[in-house]
Design goal:
Radius of gyration of chain A: 14 Å
Radius of gyration of chain B: 13 Å
Number of strands of chain A: 12
Helix content of chain A: under 10%
Number of strands of chain B: 11
Structural class of chain A: mainly beta
Number of helices of chain B: 0
Shape of chain B: globular
Order of helices and strands of chain A: EEEEEEEEEEEE
Number of helices of chain A: 0
Helix content of chain B: under 10%
Distance between the termini of chain A: 41 Å
Strand content of chain B: over 45%
Order of helices and strands of chain B: EEEEEEEEEEE
Strand content of chain A: over 45%
Shape of chain A: globular
Oligomer: heterodimer
Largest sheet of chain A: 6 strands, mixed
Chain lengths: ~110, ~110
């Protein structure tokens, strides 16, 4: 089965600094990849996804992630973070083999400090 | 209002009791999912349903029962609650596994 490793459990950064949240996956078949965000006391919201095509995908609020097949990674980046980006971020993978499940990483807590 | 709702939002129960968590969606999505969220584990799939009357096990199904007699509802039952089932439970729905919309969660404490 596919699996996901998020390499950092916590990432503290200052406002307007760049940030990278790291995600590696493992699968024996081709995959779909996702980043979800969870704000305090809320459910998860889809931030961006890679299904096919361009390996660089972007969200509407300035985040981007690049699918790197050779390194089995899907790192999330933002060039300048805001206080409002403080949240828990989850990387997820679903294989293209037709299995109806999605596997999530353990999460990375991003804290943006003023 | 359209969307996905979960009830109750908070629940405290005792070991050995049966408890049912409710999930309701108004989008007529064919897929519905139940996850549990535990520190250090992220979200783990308990059960999912591809359509009414069709359910299947996920990664951690032991101790849980689901049913789906109507498209919009997907209740999760803990038949005999244990302390290890203390968690935050999220329901999600979608047109496929690739696009899931999550409810606000139910925080369950088993004493």
């Amino acid at each position: 089965a596919q699996s996901v490793t998020q390499l950092d459990s916590q990432v503290p950064v200052f406002e307007e600094a760049p940030v990278e949240l790291r995600c590696n996956y493992s699968s024996s078949v081709s995959v779909y990849l996702f980043w979800y965000v969870q704000y305090p006391n809320q459910g998860l919201q889809l931030l961006l996804k890679y299904l096919s095509g361009s390996t660089l995908v972007e969200s509407i609020n300035g985040f981007e992630a690049e699918f790197n097949k050779s390194q089995t990674s899907f790192h999330l980046r933002k060039p300048s973070v805001h206080i409002s980006d403080t949240a828990e971020y989850f990387c997820a993978v679903s294989d293209q083999g037709g299995h109806n499940d999605m596997r999530f990483g353990a999460g990375t807590r991003l804290t943006v400090k003023p | 209002d359209a969307g996905i709702t979960q009830s109750p939002r908070y629940k405290i129960t005792e070991t050995g009791r049966q408890v049912t968590l409710m999930c309701h969606q108004t989008w007529s999505h064919s897929y519905m999912f139940w996850y549990r969220q535990d520190l250090g584990h992220g979200l783990r799939l308990i059960y999912y349903s591809a359509a009414a009357d069709i359910t299947d096990k996920g990664e951690v199904p032991d101790g849980y029962v689901v049913s789906r007699s109507k498209t919009e509802n997907f209740p999760l039952t803990l038949e005999s609650a244990t302390r290890s089932q203390t968690s935050v439970y999220f329901c999600a729905s979608g047109t496929s596994v690739l696009e899931q919309y999550f409810g606000p969660g139910t925080r369950l404490t088993v004493t």
